[in-house]
Specification:
The protein has 136 residues and is mainly alpha-helical. 65% of the residues lie in helices and 0% in strands.
Length: 136
């Protein structure tokens, strides 16, 4: 890969990360906050852009440097996870079936939902409740 193509690819990854961060923050702002999940995308979305920014700067000057590519990739993955979490949270308050890909985003979201883990009073309660012994 030429130095020019590597620089274009790195800056394109950075641009995608910025778009994902802006979309995640927009979705998070329009999602009603819950007791357990305050607006974290606003706090975490912008600092996550440090990884692809530094990666793009390194790759544009030294295209063969693996650290720059790792930073670009890591930033992209973190932004995809931030966007999927914001989309999954937004889809919980939207009418069912109104958003495309809501199941995929809930699956991709880094924090599991209550449905995925099971309710503490449903599935997990029998495993921890005492049972009668046959001795009495």
């Amino acid at each position: 890969m030429s130095a020019r193509a590597a620089a274009w690819l790195a800056w394109t990854v950075l641009a995608l990360c910025v778009v994902l961060a802006v979309l995640a923050m927009g979705l998070d702002i329009y999602t009603p906050p819950t007791k357990y999940e305050p607006h974290f995308s606003v706090l975490a979305g912008i600092p996550l852009l440090v990884y692809p920014t530094i990666g793009a700067l390194v790759v544009s000057h030294r295209p063969m440097n693996a650290v720059g590519w790792v930073l670009c990739g890591m930033g992209f993955v973190l932004e995809v996870l931030a966007f999927s979490r914001a989309y999954a949270n937004y889809s919980r308050f939207a009418p069912p079936g109104s958003l495309p890909g809501e199941k995929a985003m809930q699956w991709l979201s880094p924090l599991p939902s209550e449905k995925a883990m099971g309710s503490a009073h449903g599935r997990w309660a029998p495993a921890v409740s005492p049972t009668k012994s046959s001795d009495s």
